[in-house]
């Protein structure tokens, strides 16, 4: 763990991208091969399966430190991070033992399914053999709480510098379903693995267009389409491999069995980028959607997390893919071709397919000037779209988010004014600040909680609210603080749906704090009936 701990310390001690890049590059050049693989896995979101629960860790750590459990819980509430709390309260290591990152992860994986006494003994032994930083990282391996301030793009750039392999090639090889327990470093960064290749390409992402498109110049150089509210995915048909991948690199082929017929008709060597949506009724491919319309995202969300999809759900919310880009045709990578050229080839490909398949073109939006596009965009919510996408006609399909070629011009969010009633400390660098809030609206004389939010304010505002929470706490429920209903905030959100699991009967999509309404008293916040009115409007 020594080399990995040194890397963690270097990354945690700087905000400079150049310094982080240098530390990562040197690590990928010199660390043991198995450690490099696991570091890539951890930084790209792949975690070893948990073998110990948080409840067990708290009890064992309190026992090892000679603390009553209530005092450990109070310490945890103040620190805000379980791994860090444990590392801080434990006594110094009795006898340091050097062990590699990969060996430590293998030992943790081996504990899966073992009796509690055996797992407890192993965890206590490791705690007693590790230095302070190594112990913190060991705890984070168990809890899965790694936040090292390194993006996937920065990690890929460091790998490219360390290995001499092109960054775009590495980004593609790091996509898909690979296991750090089975993958060798040489296979991952220097050669394609054998067998059918179902890996997606790195997704091209759009930057938000905040001020409107006037600054983009001549509208003739841009193409527009709807920004659908579904699951972004790549549909892959290669020899021996048919797969649907989400943007989060999750293989979701089995969640959409209605896509299976596409394997019989899409030519081998085809990769499509598009949006998976639930669709109501037939669709004629026109931009007005007169013959059908997408269903709310909530209908599609019911499939997420399921291993099998029941027939009833398939009938109620049939899915289709709205394709808006062709990344590979006949095995040829088209990503460097201009968008207009890729779109023309996509249209020709879809036109050759028989009718009745769950694949359609995402319709292009015709517009003569920015004003006419703005008028069209204003109707997006009626079509259950989030706004429009703007893509430069000459743009390649780039890796990640590259400002300038692709923009998402979303509708302004729905907003309500609500009062904060609970506060909880954040995690990582916000562990000492109250940043996670529960909000309520009025229902007669009562306050009904309806959503939580933790983003949208400045660090200075979070610090001010933290001081207020510390002075005004009414009750404590573990890490949660009940506070007087006095602070009013404007809450923005992208969608609203019914939810029997919530007391309010309502759930919001992507809630966040737009601003702190210091000018508004609590008796002027919005009402539950007002939220229900928004729900009715969304369902109309």
TrEMBL record:
Its EC number is 6.5.1.1. Residues 312-443 form the ATP-dependent DNA ligase family profile domain. Pfam families: DNA_ligase_A_C, DNA_ligase_A_M, DNA_ligase_A_N. It is an enzyme of class 6 (ligase). It comes from the Bacteria. It catalyses: ATP + (deoxyribonucleotide)n-3'-hydroxyl + 5'-phospho-(deoxyribonucleotide)m = (deoxyribonucleotide)n+m + AMP + diphosphate. GO terms for molecular function: DNA ligase (ATP) activity. Keywords: ATP-binding, Cell cycle, Cell division, DNA damage, DNA recombination, DNA repair, DNA replication, Ligase, Magnesium, Metal-binding, Nucleotide-binding. Transmembrane segments: none annotated. Coiled coil: none annotated. CDD domains: Adenylation_DNA_ligase_Bac1 (cd07897), OBF_DNA_ligase_Arch_LigB (cd07972). This is DNA ligase (ATP). It comes from Paragemmobacter ruber.
């Amino acid at each position: 763990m020594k080399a990995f701990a040194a890397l963690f310390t270097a990354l945690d001690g700087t905000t400079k991208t150049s310094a982080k890049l240098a530390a990562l590059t040197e690590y990928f050049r010199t660390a043991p091969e198995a450690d490099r693989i696991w570091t890539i896995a951890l930084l790209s979101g792949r975690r070893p399966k948990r073998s110990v629960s948080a409840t067990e860790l708290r009890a064992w750590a309190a026992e090892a430190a000679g603390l009553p459990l209530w005092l450990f819980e109070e310490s945890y509430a103040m620190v805000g991070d379980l791994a860090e709390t444990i590392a801080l309260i434990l006594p110094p290591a009795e006898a340091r033992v050097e062990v590699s990152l990969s060996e430590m992860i293998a030992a943790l994986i081996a504990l899966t399914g073992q009796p509690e006494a055996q797992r407890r003994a192993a965890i206590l032994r490791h705690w007693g053999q590790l230095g302070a930083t190594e112990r913190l990282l060991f705890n984070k391996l168990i809890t899965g709480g790694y936040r090292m301030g390194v993006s996937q793009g920065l990690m890929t750039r460091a790998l490219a510098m360390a290995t001499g392999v092109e960054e775009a090639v590495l980004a593609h090889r790091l996509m898909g379903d690979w296991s750090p327990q089975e993958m060798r470093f040489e296979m991952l960064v220097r050669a394609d693995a054998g067998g059918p290749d179902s890996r997606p390409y790195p997704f091209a992402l759009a930057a938000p267009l905040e001020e409107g498109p006037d600054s983009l110049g001549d509208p003739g150089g841009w193409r527009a389409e709807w920004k659908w509210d579904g699951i972004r995915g790549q549909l892959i048909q290669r020899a021996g491999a048919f797969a649907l991948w989400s943007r989060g690199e999750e293989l979701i082929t089995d969640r959409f069995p209605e896509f299976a017929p596409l394997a019989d008709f899409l030519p081998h060597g085809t990769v499509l980028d598009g949006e998976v949506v639930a669709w109501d009724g037939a669709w004629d491919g026109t931009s007005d959607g007169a013959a059908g319309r997408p269903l709310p995202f909530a209908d599609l969300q019911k499939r997420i997390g399921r291993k099998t999809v029941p027939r009833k759900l398939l009938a109620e919310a049939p899915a289709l893919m709205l394709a808006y880009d062709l990344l590979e045709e006949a095995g040829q990578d088209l990503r460097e071709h201009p968008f207009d050229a890729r779109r023309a080839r996509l249209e020709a490909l879809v036109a050759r397919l028989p009718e009745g398949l769950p694949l359609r073109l995402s319709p292009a939006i015709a517009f003569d000037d920015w004003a006419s596009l703005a008028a069209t965009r204003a109707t997006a919510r009626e079509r259950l779209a989030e706004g429009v996408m703007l893509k430069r006609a000459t743009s390649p399909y780039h890796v990640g988010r590259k400002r300038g070629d692709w923009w998402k011009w979303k509708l302004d969010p729905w907003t309500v004014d609500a009062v904060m009633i609970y506060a909880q400390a954040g995690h990582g660098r916000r562990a000492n600040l109250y940043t996670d809030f529960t909000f309520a609206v009025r229902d007669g004389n009562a306050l009904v909680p309806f959503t939580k939010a933790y983003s949208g304010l400045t660090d200075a505002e979070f610090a001010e609210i933290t001081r207020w929470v510390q002075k005004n706490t009414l009750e404590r429920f573990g890490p949660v603080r009940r506070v007087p209903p006095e602070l009013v905030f404007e809450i923005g959100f992208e969608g609203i749906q019914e939810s029997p699991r919530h007391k309010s009967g309502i759930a919001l999509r992507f809630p966040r704090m737009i601003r702190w309404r210091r000018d508004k008293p609590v008796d002027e916040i919005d009402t539950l009936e007002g939220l229900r009115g928004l729900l009715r409007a969304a369902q109309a």
